[in-house]
Amino acid sequence: xxxxxxxxxxxxxxxxxxxxxxxxxxxxxxxxxxxxxxxxxxxxxxxxxxxxxxxxxxxxxxxxxxxxxxxxxxxxxxxxxxxxxxxxxxxxxxxxxxxxxxxxxxxxxxxxxxxxxxxxxxxxxxxxxxxxxx
Length: 134
What we know:
Layout: E1 2-3, E2 6-8, E3 12-18, E4 21-26, E5 31-32, H1 34-48, E6 53-58, E7 64-65, H2 67-73, E8 82-88, H3 92-105, E9 110-114, H4 117-132
Parallel strand pairs: 4-6, 5-7, 6-8, 8-9
Antiparallel strand pairs: 1-2, 2-3, 3-4
């Protein structure tokens, strides 16, 4: 379902929070598959109109990524036009899982994990502004 600058899927709510910054809030208690990752990528492309963008990826509670979802999520073609990715994990357990994911899978764009929303958005704005000034 799409309403202006926001799109809901069965597992996430995606919306623009600033120029070139998309917020992807994953629902609680979901299992993400490779197909879900590709759907989120299509929504990112639609919300950004195909232009470079930054992504704030809010991890819900009890979110599980299948092995194929983890592998799909770091494919270079899924990072086309992505300037930076900030994970937002307010749950300590999920923060540890995401830190491990970043170390093992090494996403091909600037990626950081945050527990504070304002700091994550500030970092994404800096990454966007640095990218725009090049």
